[in-house]
Amino acid sequence: MRDLKQTAFTDRLAAQQEAKKALLARFKPKPAAPDPEFEKLAEKRAAEKEALRREHELAKAEARREKAEKEAARLAAEQAAQEAVDAAKRAARKERKQLTKEEQKAARDARYAARKARQR
Predict the structure, then answer these.
(1) What are the DSSP calls for 80-103, one per residue?
(2) Which residues contact 15 (CB under 8 A, 6 or more apart)?
(3) What CA–CA distance (Å, rounded) separates 82 from 75?
């Protein structure tokens, strides 16, 4: 077939290179125009993130407070139980001492009566 356009080899090479450049230019990233709402969206996201962080902080503080209250209640119950045990021990000790005092008094009275009986 005859070349109707009368193009030379160099012309065809140049056309091929231009087509290749045009094809590659389609895949190059285009300069992005900044979104006018970008700043507002960024501020909104930051505010949402801050609110969520505060909510988490409050939840953590509430959990810590509840844990501290439970611990305080447990310690108070332990202390009350220990005081009850100590009171029972004190009462038993007083009772033993009272018995001992009564026993001592009975023994002393017996000795006194024996001495009186010997003197008569």
Answers:
(1) HHHHHHHHHHHHHHHHHHHHHHHH
(2) 7
(3) 10
- The CA–CA distances, whole Å, from 28 to 20, 22, 23, 115 equal 13, 10, 9, 127
What's the distance, Cα to Cα, between the start and end of the chain in Å? 169
pLDDT at 8 over 90: no
Work out the average pLDDT over 33-60: 92
Name every residue whose Cβ is closer than 8 Å to that of residue 110 and which is 6 or more positions away in sequence: none
Calpha distance 17→25 (Å, rounded): 12
pLDDT at 3: 59
